[in-house]
Every structure is written in structure tokens, then in C-alpha cells.
Amino acid sequence: MADTKSGTLATILENLRDAAVRFGTRFSVPAQLHDELIALLADLGIAKPETDVLKAMEDAAATWADITDPLKDLKFNVLDPIAAARGLAEQAGIISDKLEALGALPASTLAALGDRAGAIQAALPERLVGYLMYEFITQAHPKIGGAFMLLGVLRRPFTLANGNPAFVSAPVRVFDMQQLVKVLTNPREALLDALKWGSDDFDAQTVIDGLSLLIGIVDQTRTVLGPDHETFSTADEANFVGRSAAELQALQVPSPRRTLQLPLSNILSLVGLHRDGLGLLALAPVHFTGSIGGLHLPDLGNGRVLALSAGTPPATADPRVRLLP
To answer: 51-91 pLDDT, tens per residue?
Structure first.
């Protein structure tokens, strides 16, 4: 049993190491550093700073490759379980220190950030590790990544800036290991709570990301996925949920959309519907042959939505399957 635990811990640490190394490599080419930093800040929900401040952040980013480079040589002795177990704590400490160093901006950069320094320094470590793990797992282990999304362990919720000029409202990647423990002990409640099912804060983005990733794996040769940054406009959503576009716009959280072109030329869109849940929008008529929970799925006409919505309270009640409008 001890050997198995050591092997599992070593695998986790290897993934952390590889994720950090892959991240640092992005900033190892000076000619690409500026564009890579701009893209990263957008993914972290951090506002693009002014030119002089951006230069200071570029200097900080240039050190990220140096910080993670030594991790390339960090080895795990899988052939000697005793030695491996003895060294795991030390190796975990090394990786932890490097990850912490990535999130700690130097004093010169913080000085350049001015009034925004405190907010960014407080948010950066958690957002950076969340981004690092999300990207690595979904790219290197897509099956695990898709499953983790549907379990709420990996998430990409739309995070509001709430008027703070240091940030922009954007989907921000989250890696929540505590959620994995919750799912194992109380799966339905933990999942629905993490995704805020049945509320206007429902994290449809994460569910759509997870489904799209898994669909692409299952039938990657015949399924074409549209861009992952689409949104379902409030005007279109209002046609299905019984609320005006103005009411939906006031929520400030856009609904995600992902278009799928499936075999036999069926074109569908997975769409978020806020508190009305998740929808499947037909862009051409679809005939279903299966069922969900014993309920026969109706044929889906062009321009109609098959919605999976929360049932009657509590949120853990069985969901409803509805044809909208």
C-alpha cells in the first residue's frame, strides 16, 4: 500500500512539475514574450496595463522561464520506492517554492503597478496556479480534464471585475482540489453547488467546455468544434427563457455557446441559459432515438432548444427536460 501511495504522489508531483515547466517555456523566447504576456493577462482576468507598467511586467515574466527551468532536472526515483518516499517531501517543497515564486511579482513591478499592485498581488498566485493546472490537464490529459470539468474540479466561471480597474470581467480558470474531495463524499450536492446550478450564476461555461472536450475525444475525426469564445446573445437567449434581453444584460454574465458539427451534418449549439440551465440549440432538424432518465427525447426542430433545467427546490432535485420555446 505504501508503494502505491508513493507512486500516486509522485505522479501528481510530476504533473505539477511538467505544468510549471511548460508554462515557463512560453516566456523563454524574448521575441514572443510581449504577446504571450498580453494573452496570459487576458486569461487571468487582469486588465492590460499602460505601456510603462507593461514593460515592468514583461521584465517579471522574463524571469518565469528562469524560475521553472531547474524543474526540468527534478527526477522521481520510481525504481526505489523507499528512496522515492523519502524524497517526495523535499521534491514537493521544491515545486511548491517555484510555483510560489511565479506568483510573487518583484518590488519593481509592484511599484510600477501603483494602486493596482495590492489587488493583483493578492489574486495572481491563485489565478496563475489555476490557469497553469487547467491548461496542462486539459491539454496533456484531455479525458481527465473533461471529467474534472464536469465534476467542477476544473472550472472556467465568468468572474466579474466589480469595478476594480486592476481586473476585467472574464472567464477565469480554477483548479479546485477540495472540490474533488467533496464530489467523492457527496457527489450531487457538491457538483451542483460548485456550478451554481439553478441560479443566474450557473457556470455553463465549464459544463460546455467539458462536454466539448469529451465529444472531441470520442469522435475527433468527424466532429467539428466551433471556437470556444462564442457567446449566446441576450437577444437570442430571451427568445427561450421568458425574460427580456434587458433583464439578461443586467446580469452582466454572458451566456457561453459552443457550436458542434456532428456526423450526418447535424449542426447543434450548446448554450448557457443562466438559471434555466443548459440548452441544445438545433441549427437543423434533429431526430433523437434515445432517452434521458427514461424520458423519451422529442425531435428537435430547427431553431428550437432542448433544455436541461433545475427541478423544483431544492437544487439537488432531479432536473427537468424541456423543449423551448
So the answer is: 888 888 898 898 999 999 999 888 876 555 566 566 777 88
The pLDDT value recorded for residue 290 is: 62
Residue 312 burial by CB count (10 A; 0-12/13-18/19+): exposed, middle or buried? exposed
Q: 505504501: which residue's cell?
A: 2
pLDDT value of position 83: 60
Helical ranges in the chain per DSSP H: 2-25, 30-43, 51-68, 81-103, 107-113, 117-140, 142-151, 177-185, 187-195, 204-218, 234-241, 245-250
- What are residue 267's phi and psi, to 5 degrees? -115, 120
Q: Other C-beta atoms within 10 Å of 160: how many?
A: 16
Q: Are residues 109 and 197 both part of a single domain?
A: no
| Contact criterion met (CB below 8 Å) for 197 and 317 | no
Note the pLDDT tens digit of each residue in 8-40: 677 778 888 999 999 999 999 999 999 999 999
Give the number of other Cβ atoms within 10 Å of residue 234's Cβ. Answer: 20
Whole-angstrom distance, CA of residue 155 vs CA of residue 279: 19
- Contact (CB, 8 A) for 106 and 85: no
**What pLDDT sits at residue 15?**
85
Q: Taking the alpha carbons of 163, 127, 153, 223 in that order, is the dihedral positive or negative?
A: positive
* Residue 132, φ and ψ in degrees, nearest 5: -60, -45
154 and 173 Cβ atoms separated by less than 8 Å: yes
| Range of the structural domain that residue 58 is part of | 2-139
Cell numbers standing for residue 130: 489555476
pLDDT < 70 stretches in the chain: 1-8, 77-86, 219-222, 263-265, 288-296
Residues 179, 121 share a domain? no
297 shares a domain with 285: yes
Residue 196 has phi, psi (to 5 degrees) of 55, 45
In this structure, are 209 and 261 located in the same domain?
yes
